[in-house]
Target: Ribulose-5-phosphate 4-epimerase and related epimerases and aldolases
Amino acid sequence: MPRRRKTLPATMAEILARGDIEEVAAALARCETGARMPTALRESVLHLTPCPDTVVRWLVERGEDVNAADRCGRRPLHTRVTARYWRQIPLLLRLGAEVDAPQKNGATALHVAVENLCLEAVDTLLASGADATRLTTNRTGQVDGALSYALRSEHYLEAPTILTVVHRLIAAGAVPQGTEEPALTRMGHQYQHALARYDQDDPARGRIEAVGGALNRLYEIYGVLPVAPVRLRDRTTLRAPLQTRRQSPEPAGAVRTQPSPA
Model:
């Protein structure tokens, strides 16, 4: 009997996406259960997305581990969240996925959902019992909670969505860890500089101001001082296209004059 391979076919993701169980079975016929992709992360077949529900069930029945970890410690639940394939989260949980299984840095699927501001995944995981109080530790030893992950986009236009996610986490017991101030302050600087580029009656300013309420509420929740308004000397120059701000080339033969002495 030929020896089974420990490596999955390089085209396994494309095969899974087609959803033909017979094609999947043929591709795996010469592979060990638990074989890995020939990539740096060494993902299992269940890490790959998209993968139809029927194929996922068949793979688990075949013996694939629904909690298998790749080299970063990510589980199939993590990759579903990253790919915003959140509708498959309940199926993985029913098949035995651990809702709070961590990556190497301690991040659970909930942390990943929060970082990606995927509200549907956040709600699904919290409803399934995900622990909103779990902490992670990065390479420098900094401890972060789910509320820290909510600010990782660091973009002021995301403030309303961030606020919605934050409310969900607080209701589930999450508390700030005191590491969130730098990210929120950077968002505040973005917001104030964006406002300063436009006059009071400019419609663009109104669209920016619309997120101000959410940003102010985030300041309150995290206990961070609001960033003060800024004034820009020349808004017209800042909004002008780059080519109009550059000095026009002198015409051929032009004589450059020196300023007369005072």
